[in-house]
Amino acid sequence: MKHTIDAENKVLGRVANEAARLLLGKDSPAFQKNIVAGNVVEVINAGKMKMPEEKMMAEKYASHSGYPGSQKLISRKEVVEKKGVEALVRRAVYKMLPKNRLQDIRIKTLKVVK
């Protein structure tokens, strides 16, 4: 089943929450958490989301290679400049999905359109 979410004038967390719920299939009466629902979720107008400038600089994303002293922190603004708004939405939805073998399979059915 295909679902479309309009992200215009919405906050990132609300859009990601709705997309994660639909990817899980929680809206279906035949919901089973161990089976991929097969829903395709498309987020449109991702570039028109509400993103306050203070939060763009304050929110940091961390990455670590495993070596001592190799933690890198980048702000949301830097992520948008390098990878685009699509990366923010995809990352937020990915973190909201259950951490299991189906997480990667479910995130592949998410389409983000600027």
Automatic annotation (TrEMBL):
Pfam families in the record: Ribosomal_L13
GO cellular component: ribonucleoprotein complex; ribosome
Record GO terms (molecular function): mRNA binding; structural constituent of ribosome
UniProtKB keywords: Ribonucleoprotein, Ribosomal protein
First and last residue of the signal peptide: none
GO terms (BP aspect): negative regulation of translation; translation
Record family assignment: Belongs to the universal ribosomal protein uL13 family.
PANTHER family on file: LARGE RIBOSOMAL SUBUNIT PROTEIN UL13M, RIBOSOMAL PROTEIN L13
Protein name, as recorded: 50S ribosomal protein L13
Protein's organism: Candidatus Taylorbacteria bacterium RIFCSPHIGHO2_02_FULL_43_32b
Lineage: Bacteria, Candidatus Tayloriibacteriota
